């Protein structure tokens, strides 16, 4: 494969469940070494897209290529280059942690000595060394998710597809999962990461596609996506009391969309533009108002989703 050839290429993918169009003319290209994020609320079509890529679902229309070759249900040579971490934990209850990882790895690697090395590395990677002999039922939700990941990555795939791997995990396991993905990517692995957590996608992903109702509503880097909208930063200033006339002056600043005082904090939503924070503080100073803490938060991917679709990302989460 030429180094700049897309690892994943999708053109005009359509998947219907009866009347419902779950994926609606979706196209994307993922380059080698990217962490590509599919971000969207529940039901936006992320899992369906993944399952189409993996040929676990038949689809109505479109083309899917992996590593420059058409992906078919029988493309076993391509499938062995992919590691899948499904949304639902899929491990064998009767096997221990080590036996589980080994049995998934054995689907691709026959040599026992090599497999032992890979299984050791995968267990180390997710930090389950102390739990090697445990059966899944004895593991917490977070540890189970880590086992799910070890099973998906042990054979060292070039492309890893992770479908919401941090849903319902404790903060420690979440951090372990996220930093693990960063390490895999640093080693050159391409990753597709689906989530409805914008903070995770923003931290991990080099590019993001925001999905809604099976369609791509926007895609780009996090900065590019935020640059597409008119929403700017949220400025919060600890003011204690504030008179109505000064508040009105803040409201009349050119880039201010709304301003209100709530529990001693002045909260200002700005449109994108330069000097928003300085302008707000300038009005306070001119009117002799002293202030305490000042916080300026840039727009989030939720603001992007909200501005494009009129709904919050987590409405249905
Ligand atoms: N087997 C199925 N039969 C009918 N409708 C389905 C089926 N699977 C998914 N859907 C519907 O297709 C749409 C897309 O679902 P999908 O699971 O791909 O979304 P998602 O973004 O992955 O959401 P989630 O985070 O909940 O998994 C939803 O409206 C869902 O209800």
From TrEMBL:
Keywords per UniProt: ATP-binding, Nucleotide-binding, Transport
KW Amino-acid biosynthesis (keyword) present: no
ABC transporter domain: residues covered: 8-238
Gene3D superfamilies referenced in this protein's UniProt entry, alphabetically: P-loop containing nucleotide triphosphate hydrolases
InterPro entries assigned: AAA+_ATPase, ABC_transporter-like_ATP-bd, DrrA1/2-like_C, P-loop_NTPase
Family matches, as Pfam families: ABC_tran (PF00005), DrrA1-3_C (PF13732)
Domain of life where this protein originates: Bacteria
PROSITE patterns per UniProt: ABC_TRANSPORTER_2
GO molecular function terms listed in the Swiss-Prot or TrEMBL record: ATP binding; ATP hydrolysis activity
Protein's UniProt keywords contain Amino-acid biosynthesis: no
Protein's recorded name: ABC transporter ATP-binding protein
Originating species: Tractidigestivibacter scatoligenes (Olsenella scatoligenes)
Taxonomic lineage: Bacteria, Bacillati, Actinomycetota, Coriobacteriia, Coriobacteriales
């Amino acid at each position: 494969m030429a180094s700049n050839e897309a690892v994943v290429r999708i053109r005009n993918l359509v998947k219907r469940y009866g009347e419902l169009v779950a994926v609606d003319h979706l196209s994307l290209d993922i380059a080698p070494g990217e962490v590509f994020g599919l971000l969207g609320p529940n039901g936006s079509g992320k899992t369906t897209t993944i399952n189409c890529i993996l040929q676990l679902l038949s689809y109505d229309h479109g083309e899917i290529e992996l590593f420059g070759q058409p992906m078919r249900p029988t493309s076993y040579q391509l499938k062995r280059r992919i590691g899948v971490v499904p949304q639902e934990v899929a491990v064998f209850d009767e096997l221990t942690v080590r036996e589980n990882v080994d049995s998934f790895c054995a689907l691709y690697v026959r040599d026992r000595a090599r497999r032992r090395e890979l299984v050791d590395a995968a267990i180390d990677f997710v930090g389950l060394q102390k739990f090697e002999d445990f059966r899944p039922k004895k593991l917490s939700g977070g540890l189970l998710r880590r086992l799910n990941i070890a099973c998906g990555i042990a054979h060292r795939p070039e492309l890893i597809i992770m479908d919401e791997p941090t849903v319902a995990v404790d903060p420690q396991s979440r951090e372990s999962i996220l930093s693990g993905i960063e390490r895999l990517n640093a080693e050159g692995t391409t990753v597709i990461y689906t989530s409805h957590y914008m903070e995770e996608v923003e931290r991990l992903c080099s590019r993001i596609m925001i999905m809604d109702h099976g369609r791509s509503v926007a895609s780009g880097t996090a900065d590019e996506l935020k640059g597409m909208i008119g929403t700017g930063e949220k400025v919060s200033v600890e003011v204690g009391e504030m008179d109505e006339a000064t508040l009105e002056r803040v409201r009349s600043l050119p880039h201010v969309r709304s301003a209100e005082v709530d529990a001693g904090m002045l909260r200002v939503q700005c449109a994108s533009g330069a000097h928003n924070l300085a302008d707000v503080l300038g009005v306070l100073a001119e009117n002799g108002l002293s202030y305490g803490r000042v916080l300026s938060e840039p727009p989030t991917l939720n603001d992007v989703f909200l501005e494009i679709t009129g709904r919050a990302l987590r409405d249905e989460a």
